[in-house]
Amino acid sequence: MEQFEQLLTCAICLDRYRNPKLLPCQHSFCMEPCMDGLVDYVRRQVKCPECRAEHRIPYQGVQGFPTNVTLQRFLELHIEITGELPDPTSGQTMKRCSVCSEKSYVTMCGHCDKEVCADCKGAHMDILRREIARINSQVRRALHRLQDMLALVERNMLALQTNCNSVSEEVEEIHSRLTKALKDRTEFLQSELDRYLTTEVKNLAQLKENLELEIANISSNCDLADEHMQNENVEWDDLELMDAKEIFLRTVEFIRNFETETTDYTRRVRFVMSHDPNTLVLNVAGYGELSINMPHPVIQSLQPPGPGLMRSKSDHRLASQYRGEDRGYDRSPYDADPLQGRVSPLGGRKFGERPRERTDVNSGTRYGGRNDRDYGDEYDPDNRQSARSRIRARFRHGAGDAADSDSETHGGRSVRFNESHAPPVKEREKVLDTEDVAKGPLSGITRLLDSPRVMKKLLDSNVKKTKKENEPAPPLPAQNQKNPIVRKTSATPVTPPVTQRQVSEDDEIARIKKQNKTAGSSSETVTREPVRPSSERVAALKQQSSSDQRTPERSPSRRPSAQEVTSSEADSDEEVAAIGSLRKTSTTASPPNTKPAPARRVGAEVGGAKPDAESTGTSPNRARTSSDVRRGSVSSTASNTASPATSTTTPTTKPFQSRFLGGGNRPSTTSTTATATPTKPTPPATKEEEEEDDDDEEETEEETETSSESEETESEEEAVAKKPAPAMEKTDIGPLLARAANARDTAPSSSTSNARDAFISSRYNNSSDSKDSTSYKPYGTKDETSTTGSKYGSASGRNRLSDDDIPSRFGTSTTTSSQPRARPSYETDSTPSRYGVSRETRAGSIGTSLGTETPSSYTSRFLNKSKSTAMVSPEDEKDESSLYSSGRTRFAALKDRKARLARSKSSHALMLDDEEFDDGPNSPYSPAAYMASKAAAASSSVSDFPSQLTRSRSSHTLKSRENSPDRSTAGYSSNASAGGGEKDGAALSSWARYLKSKYGNRGKDGAGSSSSGTATGATPTRRSSLHSRHGDDSDEESKNMYGSPNDPIQTTAQTGIGQVGTTPRSQYLQKRRLQFKIGSRGSEPGCFTWPRGIAVGPDNSIVVADSSNHRVQVFDSDGIFTKEFGSYGNAEGEFDCLAGVAVNRIGQFIIADRYNHRIQVMDPSGRFLRAFGSQGTADGKFNYPWGITTDALGFIYVCDKENHRVQVFQSDGTFVGKFGSMGNKAGQLEHPHYIAVSNTNRVIVSDSNNHRVQIFDVNGRVITSFGSEGSEEGQFKFPRGVAVDDQGFISVGDSGNNRIQIFTPDGQFLRAFGSWGSGDGEFKGLEGVAVMSNGNILVCDRENHRIQVF
Amino acid sequence: MSALPRRIIKETQRLMQEPVPGISAVPDESNARYFHVIVTGPEDSPFEGGLFKLELFLPEDYPMSAPKVRFITKIYHPNIDRLGRICLDILKDKWSPALQIRTVLLSIQALLSAPNPDDPLANDVAELWKVNEVEAIRNAKEWTRKYAMEN
């Protein structure tokens, strides 16, 4: 037998022959590796080891030698006889190990899913073992989370019990109270009834007795009379008869008259209930309800996800959903396992099993079919294969690499771990039969100790080597190949399942990435591995270490990009604010009134303008400043006035042209109008003005000049005013003035008079504004010192205009910038200064060739002013110059109403011009304008207080004016001596007019909205100021709109106005109806895959961060797709699951490129401009930046989510500051997601994991916060998107509750709408929120892959 | 280090289970490819009675290349030099994968019985062996007694 066996043994390998090849010398050897090793490749010979005979190798190699069939038969026979199992490697052929590329008998490695040799496999298993150890330690470290959760749950149980007890006590108490009250009342009623009954019965009885008595008496009388009086039996004397008669008469009378109460006693007493018994019963029956706050009403309840394991709690719903899906998927392929209640992480496979496919199938199918599918179908939700399969695919890829690197990517590992030890996720031969094993109810993680296989292994190891219990010895590859070794410490197994699941979630993303990358396998693998883990990040166990790399990729899809939203919000806010203001103004101001006003204004403007020019001539510097001031004032006034104009739709268009034309014409007009008496007013005026100024406000510095300016204007006005009555007729203006005067005089009552009053008031306002501006000069000066060239410079112009509350740094900067601007423009009309720029921009937006005109218009303005008397004329000129019919009409019939209207328009236009100049950049389209407007807002904040005061005063003055046009009120004195003077004198000085015209609206607004302010006089309420401000903004905007008819904004704004006629509050209260929605799942244009951030551009475009499509999509305000840009990657202009987007005033896109940990700035056409930031925790570095926004000054606010802070940058990416740290105290943040900045520079942050919204000032100090965890009104669950409108109303995407909540600026709950679902107005996972300028709320409905607009 | 080829394992097992008379080969504890070999001097040879220590190392590509064998014990033999290197054809060009450790050691044992001074490695020894075989054999016996029989 032994010899027989020897005959079957290859002499080289000393094993039984495998595929014996017969050499010509009749010696046989195994083909591989024995014969192979004999080959002398140089000589192409084989030398027989036995006989040393040399044989030529056949052409096709050693395979060419004939197989020793006889030997093979013997081998088979031998097997049959001995029943000996074939050698494990028999029938196998040697392949190159795909790791070490040595030739050997390879087996599949569960770790890397490659065919590797035993050595490498052993090494891999070592790796796996180490990974398990590491992961295990992580699990141990993270286990406390579950324990915490456990404690929490216990606490919750207790809390719930106590809560329920207390509630039931409460109910009991209410019940007892109710019953007691009921009983008391019942008893009371019954006793009352009894008492009433007894008394009444007594009365009746008495009555009855009396009646009976009466009856008896009377009847006896009757009888007596019958018997004795009718006959003459008895002698009665006359007196007796008389008495008797009288008695009978009385009796008759008594009987006739006697009436007892004959009322119906059957219904004498009624039981009347104060309430309808039915309702009462109903009320009682339903006297209370249990309001139960279901944290996750929709999905969540049944499946508590292991919250600790999820990436973030906010995602848990998704996770559970996903799990659901996952399960579903799993089922189909694995239906075979009916016993599995839950899909274990191993994916239907039993612990330690080899993946099934493997058993029955060749690997080829797996790779071919499955993988293809996985990659190809990633996006197709329906087509999704079981998540598992995907995972596997991933693993496979990763696995290959794993051998090389022990890299620390956790995610991959965990999975791997499963594979190797307990054979990989894929089907394997059954190693561990774990069907009966206890599984974690939440995670589905099996308990390893319960696995028979594990038990057996452990037992074996115990028996063999007690030492090795802890560390199961790696199986000898040769021996154990069949059975992968499962020994592990019991603790470890837990982790893998979790990770897998998580992984599955992220798989899609990862795949996507892969697709994108399509990179080489090796390099890829590394990256991939990390990727996986990231997905698991949610689960969080393993992620921590490796998570960084991974997270970026995976998470993106899930996480909504708050940044975008915020940014969009911010932008939109501004616009919205403007609109809002428009609305307000519209509401407040009555169109008819406004119209007349403008005409006058124009005149006023003109007048005002001149003085400046003059002053400039004399003392250029001061003049500038003064002019600046004025402009500021003017602009503000203009804005004010403009607002009313805007309210009336018709006038708007005309004003544009008129404006421009007017501007162009003006200069000429000045000359022409010179007749009007431009110069006269000044000298006297100056003095007066000065005086006035002193009176008005403290700023004396400029004063001489500024005062001179303002004074001049005023003086002009005054002069006009003085002269006016007489003068009016003289000049063109005269008539107007006269009219105005008349109007005033006659009619406060008449509408026209009102209008005038308004104008006047507006004037006053203007004056006040100018003063304010002057007062602010100090800032201005500072600003001047500061860099003029700053972008914000444009903003400076605004500063004057705006009276914002915010004294922020921005304000200062803005102011500064404004000044520089102002100078150049003033000095030289054509100066290329910002003014020029702004003009240009404006002009550009307008489309008319205003470039040249604008400067001129400036001058013209001033000129006009100087010519105050000529004011009228300038208007005329304007008209003339302008092709406008209005102008002509005016000329033709100054007195005609049309003329008035036209003028008003023109004036309006002028005003617009002024405003624009001041604001310059306001037009949203032109970047400069945009910035300027922002700046204005900021500046407004700075100037707020004083301005408010002034305004209030002005309004006050206006009012007073209205009432008594002639007299100068105290208010006047306070505000504008000039104004007062005007009023006093002629009331209609050109300046006054101008002011009126400009501020007329505003005055109205002020009057209307800030009537209280007027009442208070010196202390106007902030509100009023806000309103007025808004009004201004709106005015500006409206102007802009008008100015550029083509602008998309215009329409929107108008519509917005139309819609919004009401207050924002009411508007919000009406919100709920879906206006329209955009998109569905997909990667085509107009489709989304997990949209996150959303923003509104300056042109009211809708900008969406299409996160998992790695691109930004832009839609117009109607939701029509306009463009997209960006693709996957980390190069310039490429994104990796971007989250937030913002659009700044100049239309640049600012994008939080989340997984690249950087911020990218794109120009309005989507071209890359710059990027900044990288991963880290230092200043200027990010950890998954999420929400992003910009403020009026272009500062960029970034929610640095995983660093739990907000970072602020300049628009060029320079780090400015940061605030917030991990925690739940005031000023601390936990996973801030989205951010928005209001136009009052309040920084609103959704402090997601603290379930609240915090509001900071720009320096990072907490102003307020609101919200807590819950689903009541005003409570949140993981709030995400935040947006703020121009009014400061805050919209919050309450992600966990799937609703939008709206709050007032002070954080009071206003309204909520929305619920879970995929229908209209329903959400699944909210991300960014933004508000458009028309008040529409944009919502990123992430899991529905769409944008909804409300 | 890569795993031990099956063949080496098998050979080792067989060497343990069925030792060749007069030869013992024990793998080193730390290196399964390194064997401590003891060969007894063949009868009727000048080396009779001696216990000769050798070391045997199986190279990486064994069995495709010959094992490396060297005498540790000094021996007076024309085909073995002072360093213990062995001149044996099967350890060089005549190596065949069909040979095994045991066959190699048997060959070495045979070499002791039949020195081949015509193919010398130690020239002086070979010279003497050719010129004065008696003297040579006496030297050999001397050396054997001196070096191989100490214990």
From TrEMBL, chain B:
Gene Ontology cellular component list: UBC13-MMS2 complex
Organism domain of life: Eukaryota
UniProt domain UBC core: residue ranges: 3-149
Keywords: ATP-binding, Nucleotide-binding, Transferase, Ubl conjugation pathway
One GO-annotated biological process of the protein: protein ubiquitination
PROSITE patterns: UBC_1, UBC_2
Pfam families noted in UniProt: UQ_con
Residues the record marks as active site: 87 (glycyl thioester intermediate)
GO molecular function: ATP binding; transferase activity
Family assignment from sequence similarity: Belongs to the ubiquitin-conjugating enzyme family.
Protein name: Ubiquitin-conjugating enzyme E2 N
Species assigned in the record: Cacopsylla melanoneura
